[in-house]
């Protein structure tokens, strides 16, 4: 089939690669001038183990399977990564109950390498930590996400696929033979495809609304949850990732490390109504309060604004977190169309598993 994938983020690239490796002629339409310029370039670059997500959910299934596939892919393609592990920590009785639930959910989800630690055991691993207990996840890691996307692009192109940069998709129309796609940009055109995959991230809902023949009532709301990050001056205080108990809308203000050993904190959750990426230095005050619950030794003046990202959520404040939404022919009844909504964390970890799922649905 001739297949159009909209969006050259990590999920779009992984889907396009999977389709091209199955023998399809694949074009990726990317509105910007490069790969991964949206959600994929503004995250924690964490490889998640898969213990947070409800039993049987797409997030649980694709995170666990995707993590295994991703580590193997990194090894075979030379993508920089490190299986550094992480601690999910509690600082009071209520949080202790939360992390016990996370541990139990991880066991149900088939996550390997989990261990419940006492406060003393956790502090023995990370002396700067203060907690009442912790869950050790040995399978959690970090990755160079841009190198991952370059490797996916390389595989896609080796299999005969291509990426058209500066190519926004303006309208998709159902025809008897398949799909007619109106392309904007410097050279507007109308092209025909047998199948279309919408992997446009923050643009997925607008594109779905511009798809004639797709039931508009199936388009979910897009809720923007901004996550701000602060860098930390000085030497890293931890050798593993440190996560507090989850909060409404996210996993809490946690310690992440990059592959150069630099320590940063975030993301928090800032509910917004428009796309904006500036980091307000004043938010550092709430970061200090959150971080000092598990790292009392955080020095004054150590936090500096770094960057931010926006999660393409389907639910808002106080609502139960939504699962990934993969709307394919089996769900909406239209052949050759797959819509991806709400692919936030753990989307990067899940990308290879999601890609195989979507490739199967494209052929349905």
UniProtKB/TrEMBL annotation:
<feature type="domain" description="FAD dependent oxidoreductase">
    <location>
        <begin position="2"/>
        <end position="361"/>
    </location>
</feature>
<comment type="similarity">
    <text>Belongs to the L2HGDH family.</text>
</comment>
<dbReference type="InterPro" id="IPR036188">
    <property type="entry name" value="FAD/NAD-bd_sf"/>
</dbReference>
<keyword id="KW-0285">Flavoprotein</keyword>
<dbReference type="InterPro" id="IPR006076">
    <property type="entry name" value="FAD-dep_OxRdtase"/>
</dbReference>
<keyword id="KW-0560">Oxidoreductase</keyword>
<dbReference type="Pfam" id="PF01266">
    <property type="entry name" value="DAO"/>
</dbReference>
<protein>
    <submittedName>
        <fullName>L-2-hydroxyglutarate oxidase LhgO</fullName>
    </submittedName>
</protein>
<dbReference type="GO" id="GO:0047545">
    <property type="term" value="F:(S)-2-hydroxyglutarate dehydrogenase activity"/>
</dbReference>
<keyword id="KW-0274">FAD</keyword>
